Amino acid sequence: MSDLLARITIDPEVLHGRPCIRGMRISVADVLALLSSGASRDEILDDYPYLENADIDAVLAFAAKQTDHPRLTADEFQEVNR
Fold it and tell me: Which residues, in sequence order, are bridge partners of residue 8?
């Protein structure tokens, strides 16, 4: 997983610091938008020949990691903030 995540870079000089693929000017959000609109991996790779299949895997791994945050119930939140 860490090899995949290493493909995702965040640099304030590239795309204003948005997560992108290997320092290129294609963001994680761009690829996620393509996938969610129904584009297949093969279509994306054909349209963006500088991308690799592992880049799409990295985008998905990065997105999954971003959504894996613990949740607190309202009662737990209040307890923590007392």
Answer: 21
Look up the CATH number of the domain holding residue 23.
Answer: 1.10.10.10
- Structural domain range at position 75: 2-80
pLDDT in tens, the chain (82 residues): 789 999 999 999 999 999 999 999 999 999 999 999 999 999 999 999 999 999 999 999 999 998 877 776 667 666 656 6
Q: Decide: 51 and 44 in contact? Cβ < 8 Å.
A: yes
Q: Which long-range contacts (CB under 8 A, 24 or more apart) does 23-27 make?
A: 24/50, 26/51
* pTM summary value: 0.80
